[in-house]
Amino acid sequence: xxxxxxxxxxxxxxxxxxxxxxxxxxxxxxxxxxxxxxxxxxxxxxxxxxxxxxxxxxxxxxxxxxxxxxxxxxxxxxxxxxxxxxxxxxxxxxxxxxxxxxxxxxxxxxxxxxxxxxxxxxxxxxxxxxxxxxxxxxxxxxxxxxxxxxxxxxxxxxxxxxxxxxxxxxxxxxxxxxxxxxxxxxxxxxxxxxxxxxxxxxxxxx
Length: 206
What we know:
four-stranded mixed β-sheet; 2 helices; rod-shaped
């Protein structure tokens, strides 16, 4: 049987069939390759056509982009299908709480993307130092003079007794606090304890 098959392959008809099969395979391979390339070209053309006008997002800040430590600002990337923020968030809105550049990549309904960024600055809150000019502990009838740093460091001062100078005279025991506001509008508070010792009352024995 093998010899018959070999004879058939070696016959003119068999050789013609083999050549036809080989030619068909080569032609089919070429046609498949052409179809794949054509598909890729059409897909790329469609993608370029769809994304000829990619989204141009604009981040809206609902508040100041410069603010004091402890505050925040809400950022809005607009209405799109998908979002990817530099913070890792995936929604339309995020709260910015620290200094930095916040970027978002948006994707529209056609799969086209766009990027927008915004700079956020967070100013540190002041940390005033209360300086006791004499001593924070003194005898009844004496006094101490307190300074909140100096008069040039901050825009305004508010002591716990309601006074607004950068210094304060104290005469009685207690905790004295000052809240300062710097030139950026940020505030900070510090306190100091004052102790007034009673004077001795001597007793004279007659």
